[in-house]
Specification:
The chain has 189 residues and is mainly α. 39% of the residues lie in helices and 10% in strands. The protein has 8 helices and 5 strands, in the order ααβαβαβααββαα. The strands form 2 sheets. A 3-stranded parallel beta sheet has the order 2-1-3, with helices on both faces. A two-stranded antiparallel ribbon has the order 4-5. The relative contact order is 0.14. The N terminus is likely disordered.
């Protein structure tokens, strides 16, 4: 399967956001893999747990796409943008890189990112909250994939919930409220 940065997002979908490169500097993939178009590079920063998640996502993507290799470049956050900017200026950018929302516009607005409109279906944005999807838009087109759309914990006051008639709160992901159900709980409160 030939894969490059243009068709990667169509294949990888939401998994694309977490993929990253390894080490403090830019790590090139195997030259033979690069020559046949089956190698991708991903630069990011992260905690050990985040990097373990990225590594797992990469392994799953590689398993689903025989012959494709993804090089993960983990850069300390303090060096992240210097690293990315140097690669961009040298004309050798990573295929995928992670940036915080507050720096996203700088890269999208300067033509450094690929317009993903033709690589994701129109419903792709429905996977994310409206605010997260809007954050990766430039000129009403997606130039990235939202990354932090998860919630680690929600604290609530049991007394207030019970007083409002809300007797059951999900404690497992599989039983979590939908956004509409959660919205109804909030309206009830």
């Amino acid at each position: 399967m030939q894969i490059n940065r243009r068709n990667f997002f169509g294949v990888a979908g939401a998994v694309a956001a977490p993929l990253v490169l390894a080490g403090c500097g830019f790590t090139k993939s195997d030259p033979a893999a690069q020559a046949d178009g089956n190698s991708l590079t991903f630069t990011t920063w992260g905690t050990d747990s985040e990097l373990a998640g990225f590594t797992s996502a990469i392994a799953g993507f590689e398993a689903a796409n025989s012959g494709v290799k993804v090089a993960l470049n983990s850069v300390p956050y303090a060096q992240m943008f210097t690293n990315i900017d140097a690669q961009l200026q040298a004309g050798n950018p990573p295929d995928i890189f992670r940036v915080p929302y507050y720096t996203f516009g700088r890269y999208a607005g300067s033509g450094q990112l690929l317009d993903l409109s033709s690589h994701v279906d129109k419903a792709f944005g429905d996977r994310f909250t409206p605010a997260a999807w809007a954050a990766i838009q430039n000129t009403a087109k997606p130039f990235g994939v939202p990354h932090h759309t998860d919630t680690s914990a929600i604290l609530y006051n049991k007394v207030i919930f019970e007083a409002a008639g809300i007797k059951s709160v999900p404690t497992e992901l599989e039983k979590a409220w939908t956004w509409d159900e959660f919205s109804q709980v909030l309206k009830t409160l």
